[in-house]
Fold these 3 entries.
Entry 1:
Amino acid sequence: MRDSSKTLVTVVLFGLLMVLFSFIVIRSYENSTYSSENDRQVREDLAGTIDTIITGASHAEYGIDPVKLDKNLGTSSYNLSGPWQSTYGTLMLLREELARNPVKKVYLTISEDTFWVKETTDGVLGDAKILPRLNGLSDRLEYMKNSFGLREYPKLYQDMVNRGFTYWSAAILGGDIDGVDPEARGFYGKPKNSVKLSDEDAVFNKDRYKLNTNVNQSNWKNLDEIIKLCREHGAEVQVIVVPVSDNVIWTRYGWDLWYNHAKAFCAERGVELWDFNLYKERYDLFKDWYSYRNTTHLSDYGASKFTGVLIKTIKRAEAGKNISKLFYTSYAEMKEDSPYAAIYNAYDWENADPSKRPAQTDPSGEEPPADEEEPPADEEEPPADKEEEPADQDEEPDDEDLGDEPEDVTEENTEAGKE
C-alpha cells in the first residue's frame, strides 16, 4: 500500500513538473515576438486600421510586400500568411482580423499544394505556428480539435518545446533569431539562391515528376467558408497564384489539370483567379538564378518584382482594362516559351546516347519516388538582365522602383530555403 502511494505521488509530481516545464518553455516563446510567426501583438496594435489582407501559405508570406502595395495603392494592408499555413488556419486568422478591421479586399493566395494537403496529417509544423498567432484560449482549443490528429500531438509538443528552447537559448546567450518586424506588416523577405537548371538537367529532367493534383474536399470546404466569411464582412475576394520557379514547372507535369481544378473552383464561386505562373512576362521578370530563395518561393528581390507586377495588374483591373491578355491560357502554352524549352529542343536527339534519354511519363502518372530531390542549383554566372518596358506605360505604379536588378547577381547565398 505504501509503495502504491509513493508511486502515485511520484507520478503526480512528475506530471506537475512537466506542466511547469512546458509552461515556462512554451508559454514564454508563444507570447514573445522573438519569432517571425508570432505577430499577434503587432496585429492587435493595428486593429481597426487594416483595409486589405493578403493571406495564404509561405508563397504569399515571402512573395508579396504589403508596404510596397500600400505605397502605390494607398491601402493599409497586412500579410496574414505563414509557412505551411492550412486553409483552416487561414480561416481562423481571418475571423479575428475581419471582426476588428474595415477590410475591403482579401487577396487569397493558393498554390499547387493547397488542394491536396490533409489537415490532420500533413501540416503539423504549419499548424504549430498558427497556435501562438490566435488570440483566445477557446480559439486555440478549437483549432487544435479540428487540425490535429491523435498522432500529431507528440509532434506538436516536440516542435513547441524545441522552439521554446531556441527562444530561451537566444534570450540568454544572445543568439540570432529572426524576429517580428512591425514595419514589414507580415512580409518576410529572404535572400536569393540560384535554382537555375543546368543544360543537362533541362534536357533530361523535363516533366520528370508528377504534380499532386488530388483534391481534399475539406480544403475546398474551408475555402468556401473563407469566401463566405469575407462576403459577410463586405470584403471582396481575389484569388492569386504567386509564381514559382521555371525549374519546378519545367520538371513537373500535371499543371494544367491542377489549373483546371483552380479555374473551376473559382468560377463556381464567382471569384476571379489570377495565376501569375502564367504571366506572359514571367521569363523576363523572374529569373531562376536570382528571383527565388528556393524552387517554390520568391526571394526578397523576386518579391519586390512580383509585388510591382501585382500593383500594375490591380490598377489595370480597377481601370476596367482587359486582364486576360496578360496571361498564357495554359501551362502547356507557357512551357513552350520557357528558356529551358530552347535548350531541350536544340538537343541532338538523333545522336543521343539511348541510356540518357528522358524517361517517358504516363499522363495518368505515378507519384514521384520517395527519395525525390530537387535538381541542384546551377552555379553558372548569370548574364546581365535587361528588362523590357511594359506595353501599358500608363499602368506604371506611382513608385517607379518596382524592383531593381540585384546588386550582385553572382553572389552565392548558402542559406537553404525551407518551406
Entry 2:
Amino acid sequence: MKYHAPDGFTQASQLDASTEGRIREAPVCPASACGAQPPNQQQTATTLGQAPPLPPKPPQPRSVAADLRAASTLLIRATTETTTVVENMHHAIASGPFAWPSRAISGLVYSGIRGVTRAVGLTIDKALEQLAPVLGQSTPGPEALAALAALNGLVGDVLAESGSPLAQPMELHRRAEGPKPSRKVLVLIHGSSMSDLQWLRHGHDHGAALERDLGWSAHYLRYNSGLHVSVNGRELSALLEQLVSSSDTPIDELAILGFSMGGLVARSACHLAEREGARWRKKLVTLICMGTPHHGSPVERAGSWFETALGVSRYSAPLARLAKLRSAGVTDLRFGFVVDAHWKGKDRFEFGRDQRVSVPLPRGVRCFALAATQSKGPGARLRSDGLVPVASGLGHAPGKLDLGFPKEHQRVVYAATHLDLLDRPEAYAALEEWL
C-alpha cells in the first residue's frame, strides 16, 4: 500500500412507475452526441471546454525477469488445471463397468503431462532467475498496464495469495505536473479490471477537469480489483488515514468519486471508518457513485447460473472448475458485497439468493448516484448500461437494502453505455454541479 506524494502532498432492467419518479433525469442529449459513433478526442474536449489533460504519473520501472517468472508460473498453473479438467471429462465419458483399464492408462498419461509441464516450468523459472541481471528493468506502457489491470481483475486474488509480483498493490497518487495542491482533495477510484489511467477517455478526464474548474486536488487510486471489495475497502481506509495524517497541506474537505466497483470500495471504506472513528471520515463531505452496481450486476449472476448449469451433467461438471477461476472481486459483483459479513463463511460460487445485511450510506455525507441507460429517453422500462441495471446504479431495492439516495441526488444519463459515463458531457455536468 503506497501513497505517492508529489508537490506538497505526501442487461435490460425494469423500473416501475414509483422508481421512475424517484430519479432526477438528465436532459436527453441530441442525436449528434448520442449516436452510435463515439466522439473523438477533439470533439469531447471542445464540448467540455477542456484544456489538454495532464499526463498520467509515470509508472514505476518493473523487473522484467520477475514479471516473466510470474507470468510463466501463472501459465503453468493454468495448463495443469486445464489438464485436470480434460482428465475428469475423459473419466466421465469413459464410465461403466469396463472403464477401469481406460481410466488407469489415461491417468498415467495425464499425470505424465502434468509432471512434464511442472518440470518445464521449473526450468524456465530457474533460467529467468539467472537472467535477471541481464534483463534488468523496464517501464510498462499504457497497454501493458491495462493488461495488468485486466489480469488483476480476473485472478487478482490468486496473484495476491501467491505473492506474485503481478499483483497490483494499492497506490494513491496525483497526476504528474499538476497544479499546486489545494485543501480540497478528490479521490477517484476506478472500476473492476481497470486502472487509474482509464479515467482518461476520448481526451477527457473527470479528475483533471474538476481540478481545473473547481479547484479540487485530484488523487487517483490504483488497486487490485480481484480482491474482495471489503479487503480493498479496509486498505483504502488505512491509505486515506495516512493521507490526512501526513499531508503537508492541511485537508479541509475530502470527496470521493467511485466508478463502477470503485463506488462499492468507497462505501466499504466509509463503513469501516465510521466503526473505527477514522480521522479521514470526519473530513469526507461528498461521495459520488457513478455506474456502481450497488445491488449487483446480472452479468456476474449469469456467470454463477452458467457454472451451476455445468454441474448438472457429469459430463460437463468438470468444466465448472474453469468457471471457478473468477476472482473474489468479480463474485462480489453478483449482489454488491461491501463488508466481510456478506461473503465470509460462505461458498462464493454457490448459486443462491441475495442474503446481504443492510449497509447504509455514510451519515452526514452528501451522497449522489449517477447511472446510465441505453434507452434514448425517460420511460417506465429503462435498459441497463450494458453491465449495471439502472435500479442497481441508483441504489433502489426492496426494504432495508434500499440505499435511499435523495431524489435530487440521483441522475440518469440516457443513450449511454457503462463506459460512456467517463466522458459524456451530461455526466461531467452532474459531477460539476454536485461538487
Entry 3:
Amino acid sequence: MISLLPLLISIQVTPARVQPAKTRLAVYESVLAEFNQALKPLPTGPANQMVRFGKLRPFLEKSLGRLVEAQKLPLGTGPKTSVDSAFDFPNDMVRVDLMRNFARLAEDQLGAGHRAQAAKTITIAQETSLELTTSGQIRFLTAARDVAILTSVVINNIERWDKPSLVSFLALRKKMTDPKRFRALIDNSIRSKSREALGLVPELIADTGGQADDEQIREMVKWVRSLPAGSRRKVLESEIATRIKKLEQVFQNLRPPEYTWPLSDAAYARAVRVVPMHEFLDLMTTQGLAGLPKAIAKSATVARLFGLYVQVQIYRLDHGKLPSVLTDAVPAADAFDTLANHPFRYSSTGNKINVWSDGHPEVGGKIELKPRNQQHPN
C-alpha cells in the first residue's frame, strides 16, 4: 500500500488573498467595521475615555493612512438604506464614535505642535464623514454630530492654527456645502422612498387592511378593490411613479436662498401633494422626507458659519486685529445668511468673536458655533 503522507506534507497551502477594496466607500465601511471590532474588548464609560483612546490610537493613525490612500479610488456605491426606519442607526453611532476619536487625535497632535498633522486629521475625517452620509436621510441626520465634533476642534482652538491650516479648512468648508453632495443625498433618499413604496404594492393588491382602524388605509383598500384585478399593479405603480416625479420636482428646486424652501411640514405637504389625491398613497410615497429640506438648510448654514470663523481668523493673522464688521474679512456674498434672509450676525469683545445665524423658525431658530472658552466666560 502506497502511503500518501509524504505527498500531503509536501503540499503548500496558499492562504486566500484578501481582495483590496476597489472604492472609497468600501474602504470607509471596512474601517468602520474594524473600529467596531476594536471597541469591543475596551472598557466603557466616561472614566475610561482616555484609556480607550490610548489603546485605539495606533488603529486611528493606521486608519488615517488608509483613508488618505482611498482618495485615489472612485467613490463607488453606498448601501441601500431606508428613509423612514433607523435600520442603520447602530452603525451610524459607531461612525460618530470614530469621528470623536479622530477629533481627540487631532487635539493631541495640535497640542504637540503638529498643526499640519492635526489639520490633515480633521480634513480627512470630515471628508470621510461627508461621503459616508450621503446614502440616505438617516445617515445624513446623524452626520450633524460628526460636523459638531470635528469643527469644534477647529473653533475651540481657532487662535492656535497657522494660515496654511486655516486655508485647508476653507477648502473643507467648500466641500461641506457642495451642491453635488446635497444632490446625491436627495437622489439616494428618493430612490429609497420609491423602493419602499413599490414594496407595499403586493400588500395593497392582496386586499389586506380592509378592516384596518385607520380610515385612510380603509379608503385606499376600497379604491384598490374598485380597480379591475388585472390592472391593479400597473395602476398602483403608475400612481407611485407620478408622486415620485412630483417629489423629484420639489427637491430639484432646493437651491439657495433656503428661506424660500418648504421647511414646515405643512409647506412640504402642499408642495408634494398630487391631485387627484389619494391621501394614503401621498403619505406612503412622500412621508419621511419632510425633514430633509430643513436638515440640508441647517447643514449648509453650519458649514458657512465654520467658514466665517476661519476667514475672520485669517484676517486677524494678516492684519493683527479683528475686523470691525464681517465684510472686512469676507466677501459680501459669504456674509449673507440665505436661511435667515439677512447678513450673518457678528460681534467681537476684546479678542473674542461670535458669529451666528438667526436661523429660521422651522429650523429651530438661532444657529451658532461658540468656541469652548467663550461658552463659560466666568
